[in-house]
Design a protein that fits this description.
The longest helix is centred in the N-terminal third of the chain and has 19 residues. This protein has 672 residues and is of the alpha+beta class. A nine-stranded parallel beta sheet has the order 41-40-39-37-34-31-30-43-42. A five-stranded antiparallel beta sheet has the order 5-4-3-28-29, with helices on one face. Helix 7 packs parallel to helix 8 and helix 11 runs parallel beside helix 13. Helices cover 20% and strands 32% of the residues.
Amino acid sequence: MNISFKMIKTSVIICIFIGLVFSCSGHKVVDGSIERKRLTIVGSNEGLFSVDLAGKRTDLWTGGSVKKILSVPNEEDTWIILTSEGVLISKDLKNWEKRNNGLPEKTIKVYEDGTKSFLTMMQDIKDIAINPADSKVMVCATKDRIYLTRDQGQTWTDLGRLRYNANGIKAVTSAFLPELTVFVSHSLYGIHYLQPDLDNTWTFLNEGIENIETTTNPDEVSCFAVVQQGSKPEIFVSQTFRRRVYKLDWEQKKYIPVWSDGNPFGTVDSLYYSGGELYFVREGKIASINYSDFIEKDQPDITKAIRGASGDTQINCIVINAPQRIILNELWLLDEPRDYTAHIADGKEGIFIPIEQLRDRNALNTHINTIQRAGLNMIVIDGKDEMGRLRFTPNNPVLREMGTVFQPLDLETFIPEMKKHGIYTVARIVVFKDHQLVNKFGGKYAVWNARTSAPWIGTYANGSFYNERWLDPYSEEVWEYIALISIELYERGIDEIQFDYIRFPTDGFNLRDAHYRWQENDMDMESAILSFLRHVRLRVNAPISIDIYGANGWYRTGARTGQEVELITPWVDIICPMYYPSHFDQPFLAHNPPELRPWRIYYYGTLRTARISRGQVIIRSWTQAFFINVSYDREFYNKDYVRRQIEGVREAGTGGYTYWNSVGRYDDIPDK
């Protein structure tokens, strides 16, 4: 269910709730209307709007999506919103001023009818916070940089990166301790702080925060809350993947646990202090903990009021006076887990089959029997394989010119056969890894090696080459080539298009020699991936899935690849993390009993990706149905190893899985 306001259906509910609130707090009528401070204010993907006592909705800003609302302390009529257009401020909820001077922008390349143009938009701002002791001081952060303003956003100063060249920032805040101190939460490396008036060094501050089991990595901190009691602020933090709240002991530089419900997994976000209670959003409800004893208390009236606002407008954040002001963000959590049963791609469980085996009738029959034996309903095939070869005969002359057809599958025979057996078909398209097109047209589309004036090829330290060739992800003509492949496969009966290797090359001793000739206007990796996804999403009228590294689904990061789940999510229907246990560090989650490691990786991994994507997409993991000669597999790989992965996915309650075995051997998968 989407959280939204449909006025006809919900005006009575809203009226009753707001009426109760106002009867508790009192309200003042001015010229027949409720004072602005008594309005319920809502941020959505369609903008900002208010709801008055009579249930009347009034649009306040419609220039983009709104994901966070801030009320300026001691300035009741001043509001700041975090939007897709950056930071905006208003003193009357009508006139809005952008406060983006010094904040970064990103460039999206647009390619239509053979003509390219560019869109400039704000970099995605992950979080923003007002300093409660001085409302002129604010901090915000993008994926990898932190920014400070001392003039309420008139100008922003770049405080730089953490010591690691990896994105993954989740939350920021600041406090005077007594020096101005900026805090930032990073998905991989935990909490750091910096005192910009003293030095420019980011310092770890993670003692007391629970680590991910078997690692030294503190599990992600989702939110900060600064409670200003007189001149001494107190800082609280919560976690994204475990229901925990901590209080910072600044003198000891450690966090003290103050609340937990004891569950091994869960999310607490949007901490907000008001009236002696620390409010927060968790799965399915709003709750609070009392500031004196930290005992949890459900807030059913607030939960009911927000839930009662159902319809077509996605609510991201809300301001309620109940009777004191409460501001809550991350409201998607109220509908976690999401129900995707109406989506054609939901609940699909299947196998990948090499084209060669589909061309052989006996082999095909064997795979159909496997699907039926295991209770599966999906098959994934290559439309464009890892060598860049088209595995079907295209009708489009552009594809015949740019592509290389190799042992094609007869789609007109294959697809009706699958439909007869009720099997959902997915065409995997390997996007930027391609041995064929890199060598055509004089290497026009290849990632280039400027030093050798030839297509770039990754090398090992000894000088030998990786068996990989890469197309330039910035090339709009490559995007159109992939879009045309997708369009034709869908029009010829394939049910879903799946993009693999939708990333930049990550391996090679000579990676710094890789040159991207199609890169323009200061585009970065994420600009390229987003531009590509935008292009195909607008061109391809089919369910779209995307394969990502397991680490990019486990942590809030697109490090090295450009695959950042938060940014990808709006453009796809399904995300397929490759949580192969063999590909993680071998001690990872291998604590006692170690044989449960595959279950842990898939259960927690699936839930983590769902949280990072804010529940907006189906999570359909690739599961390991193959042996690799690594230490854990040597000891534990067997049918139970495979079965436990599936049990983990199913217990996580998300939308399916796909067995991967590159040679199509599925003796190890369990029966239904």
